[in-house]
Every structure is written in structure tokens, then in C-alpha cells.
Amino acid sequence: MIGGVEKLSDVLARFQRVGERARKDESSSLASGNETRGHMLPNRHPNRDFFVADLVEWAVKDDRHSMEHPMFSLSKKPDRKIRRYEHNGNTVVIAPGAYGLATIWDKDVLIYAVSQLTAAVNQDRQDVSPTVRITAYDLLVNTNRHTGGGDYDQLQKAFERLSGTRITTDIRTNGVRQREGFGILDSWKIVEKNSADGRMVAIELRLSDWLYNAIVGLEVLTINRDYFRLSRALERRLYELARKHCGHQIKWVVGLEVLYKKSGSNSPLKRFRLEVKNIAKADNLPDYWVRYDAKADQVMFSTKEPKKLAASAMKPEVSQPGGDLK
């Protein structure tokens, strides 16, 4: 089992007022229309507390299989449709549970757990297993969420959707093929509550064998911590796809219809095209620019990393942010 449990009852109250005040400030900002213009979320915890300071140095990791394939809903409304995705010989069927499909926001829980376990694997720890114990407060802080009472309730709902969503796939992880349906999250339980207000403090998560095999096989990629500041679900999904497919390359060009399929979006194709254009104009994605070529109906993702750009013979117009390809 990975992870330690902190006694948080003496600090939760201290930070609750700060979190609630930040929530009110952000609500005012969103009410003024900032979210519709594609602004990134603020860094809600710029000054980390002593008991989460060590987490700042951990690389944020995402498993490359769920980055490649659309396993999560992009809607905040309950999504109860069964999805079947086929691409390049791989098949994934995602079936919702009673609370609907797990969302890309719920995936923050997995990213946090994957990051912890990957760090443990890299340290050659002997206690690595599919079970990880985490503190709710640390998870909320490190995924750039508020820490008010309602946020703990939302976290529990995320656990329920993750454990209820069932995956059937022939995709191998670490050379092992999972031949039966499994939950994205195998199980979860609260192992400690705050005696003052009953909030969850420590949680024990058991990851699916499929995901665990990917972690021990180091089939993961480092992602930018600003991923947690992206305010739109599609922005998060496009960042995942850009990170997965660009890799060490300078750029990745993909047809819009293929991108639409890989995104898992439920919007009509016409609406999806408009959303991609707006994301390109907003230029919020960490590490990558997005360009849309209307004539070819293609999307280009290109790196923002100066060293990669300097080392390439990339044309000047490719290295400019936002808008349509010329």
C-alpha cells in the first residue's frame, strides 16, 4: 500500500475559510463571463502547506492508454450512454454505472493516484500495489480544487462514478490483455473521517489491474500541472491527445473528423469544429498551440517549447499561436 495518512482535523478548519473565500471570488469572475471566453482557472493554492509541500516535486503522470482512447465523458451532466470505440485494431466499450459515466474531471483522482504510484515505482519501493491510500485534502489541493465542504461531497461522487463505470477492452497494458469487464476504479473506501465535521480525511483506492499494469510497466506520460487549470472539458481532452501524439515531435496534424472521434465529444460535428476554433483562439493549452486549417479540415498541434522549435526547421507561421492555419 502506498501513501501515508495525515491527521488533518487541526488544519481543515484553518483553511476552510480561505477556500470558501476563493470560491466566492471565482464565482464572481465566472458570472462576469470569463469562463465563456476560455480563461484558465486561477491557481487556487499558490502557497502549499507544509504537509503537501513534498508533492510539489512529483511529476504529474497520466496513463497513455486513456490519453489515447476516449474513456471519459466530457459532460458535467449525467451521461448514461454506452460507448463503443474502435481505432487501429483496438476496441473499447465503456458502460456507465448508476451515476453515469466517469467524467474527465473525475479522472483527476486517477491522475493523482497514478502520479503517486509512478513515483513509488521509480523509487523501487517494495510496497507498491494496486491499493493506494491518500488524503482527500491533498488530492483537492494538488488538482487545483477548492477545499470547502461541498468539494468533499463532489469527490465522493467522483469515486462512485469511477467505480461504477465498466470498461471492456482488448488493449494490452504491460503486455497483459484484460479479457473481462472491469471498473475504472476497482473499489474505494473512507478509512478516516474528521471527528469535528465528519468529512473524509483518508481514502483507500484500489485501482483496476488494467491501470495498475500500465503503471508498473511505466506506460505513463508526464503532463503539465497547468492541466488542472483548464476550465473546459474539451481543452483537457485536446491537451491529452496533443501530449500523447506529439511526444518528442514538433507537431501533430490530424483530420477534424478523426480528432472528433478520438475526443469522445457528444456535440454535433459542426459544434465540435467551432469549439476547436475557439480553443485555438483562446490559446490556453499548456505546451501546445492549436491551429485549424479550414481548407483541409485539419487540426495541427505544435509544441511551444523553444528548444524544440530552435532545433527544428519549422516554418515561422507554424510557431505562431492561435487562429486558423494559413
Give the distance, in angstroms, between the N- and C-terminal Cα atoms: 53 Å
Mean pLDDT: 83
Q: Please bin the fraction of helical residues.
A: 25-40%
Task: Give the helix tally.
Answer: 10
**Residue runs with pLDDT of under 50 for 5 or more positions:** 4-15, 24-36, 48-56, 316-321
Strand numbers in spatial order across the main sheet: 2-3-5-8
% residues in beta strands: 15-25%
> Which structural category fits the helices and strands?
alpha+beta
Order of helices and strands: HEHEEHEHHEEEEEEHEHEHHEEH
How large, in whole angstroms, is the Cα Rg? 20 Å
Shape: globular
Number of strands: 14
Characterize the biggest β-sheet.
4 strands, antiparallel
Provide a brief overview of the structure:
This protein is of the alpha+beta class and 326 residues long. Helix content is 36%, strand content 20%.
